[in-house]
């Protein structure tokens, strides 16, 4: 490794450890690299790369999906999804925990953001589970673990960013993440069923007559049309991801403001304000990450990584094992968006060089980084759930450990069986 590349990487890590926001740490590391190498002529190019990183039609889908999620949250549409999940899963032992996971699956088809899942569903399920006799730590563990389904089940903001950074079809990637996302929900439900039998967790009592179930289902159909519109439009070739995001946001606006009348007009300013701030925070990271990645290209990092992978000669499973360890380690310290921006193009190219399908590798990468949301020291989903439950971090980590384990088992299944990722894109003609 050259001295300039060492300076670039160590300054970036040091600035993050010092508490500088990731976007500014990346651009500051680039400026320090320019000072060291004397490459002042690159300054206009760095500014151009930063702007071009954000100036993407595909990335316009990000603020639109965020806006759709904010409208759903503000409009309390989650209440209808929770009632529907209750009807589907509440009859089982550990019913409310099962409903928590089921609601996350349904909710993830609307927002695709893990923290949005916790913010919306955690405030309902954590107090509700505690009232039914679950410990606050267990309630928070179920909520945090199920939240990582959100970035897997389409629409997924992480998939949009990954596809835009690696030139993988976003529609195909969203189709590829669907089955593995449902697998994550399934293994978590199996774990809850086992724990419920051991600890005697109760089912949820509710009217499950055909008339009551029909009413609950009818109420849920309107919000559930959001993922249907997105998936049908994108996978059917009718809409680009950006157009699908625009349609989803417009549909959520019409439903919340005019059909359900759950959002007043004077509240829309706050919704748009929160969406703009969150979108800006994501897109500035994308822009700065593009400039940082360009400098890594100047340092020949992609060629070095490709040469290293070629020299391994580990075969499919050996190579995937190394990539999984790298991604899990990165996810423990850095948020998924930043990892994808910085390392996505490098690792994706290296995986393709090793003969790994780009779609399959994208699914594995996203799943690895989602698991990182549950593991210290980053563990943003754990910290978010703990703030709601106020249960203490150590008890929460102890309760979450079995969920982290089954998520890793699901990851191993996805790695070992590529068809889980590839069957749906192939059926849809990607």
TrEMBL record:
The chain crosses the membrane at residues 12-36, 56-72, 105-126, 168-195, 216-238, 244-263, 275-294, 314-334, 339-356, 362-384, 396-417. It is found in: Cell inner membrane. Residues 11-420 form the TRAP C4-dicarboxylate transport system permease DctM subunit domain. Keywords: Cell inner membrane, Cell membrane, Membrane, Transmembrane, Transmembrane helix, Transport. The keyword Membrane applies. The keyword Cell inner membrane applies. It holds the Pfam family DctM. PANTHER family: SIALIC ACID TRAP TRANSPORTER PERMEASE PROTEIN SIAT-RELATED, TRAP TRANSPORTER LARGE PERMEASE PROTEIN. Part of the tripartite ATP-independent periplasmic (TRAP) transport system. The complex comprises the extracytoplasmic solute receptor protein and the two transmembrane proteins. This is TRAP transporter large permease protein. It comes from Nitratireductor thuwali.
